[in-house]
Amino acid sequence: MDARRNLISKKKPAYPVSDHLADYLAGYGRLADGGVRYEDLARHVGQFPLYDERGEDTLWSSVFYGPAEQVEIHDALRTTYALLKSAGDRSTVEHLYIDRIDLCLYGNTLPFRVRIVNRLNENFDYFYVKRADASRVYGLELEHILSPNSINFLVRVDGTELRDQTIIEEHIIGLPGDAFMRDQLPDNRFDQVRLSKEFVKFNERCFVRLLGDMHAGNWVVDITPDFEKLHFRMRAIDFDQQSHHARRQVYLPQYFPTNNPVIQFGLQHLTEPTVDQYQREERALMAGRLRVTHGRYAELMAVMREDLIAPEASVTALGDSLARHYAISDFREAQTMGELVWLSLELLQRRAEPASMKLLSGATAADVAGDVQGYGV
Length: 377
Known about the structure:
Number of helices: 12
Radius of gyration: 21 Å
Number of strands: 10
Number of domains: 2
Structural class: alpha+beta
Oligomer: single chain
């Protein structure tokens, strides 16, 4: 395969939150009135690199502010945390202090990560302050509706320009996929099978709702001990590439080389009927979640289908690819990425067949390694 076909732009443009999307967010308690803005945190006067316990550069930098601004910014961050966690009740944050503010130097939107500490018992938590991007907002909402994971976030909209909009996100707990595969891969067959099963389900969820860029740095593994076993759940943590890119493979985690260690378990332990079973199970679960949240889903789709969050050429190319994949011409008629997502989810509710490729069945290690090599953050 020509590697040039797999090169993807390393920087995706951000799209502002529209008035209609802001109205939707307000209706479901997602709109923040007050707290910190991204531009406030961008006023730092210095930074220094942050290293992990191994002494390796994390590619995050801790930032600091002038004495006068620090008091104001830390107070605004406590207010933001109260809005995120306790509906704005300031009494819940009076005993908390801001321990550190880190800036991600490699992320598409240069997010800030805030470490907040309880001074009474030194317990700590994290939350994130990011530049607004409508793509990310749709991704977060779809994750909340379609996945087994609830998502807590807020959007502050002070104007129609991107610089006037901010996203606040709760920390998603789990081991980063790349670190998990480097240090924590199970060595027994039983857990390898369970991990493979979760990857199949994760792959299916991403493809159905068109969430792209799920290389190993953009998802985490939540590990829960259970009776005589460990339960693994893969969770997306980066939603910038929700329904943006033109190529179908970008929405399938199975095609990212950094995911190969987990894929190898599937090649070794899963049969085609087993993979098909897991895919059907996940589609049934997603369809059930859509039925439960039908009103919210319908409102979100009404907004997303009218919003412009990708170039017209990307919509056309992806629509044509999905039309050929599903053998349904309706995908070629879509005018927006939101319409493609809506068609995919409507199809989910009508058909029982797995949406994605027959993952791992008949594949070789060479087949699954490298279809999207060169893909940047």
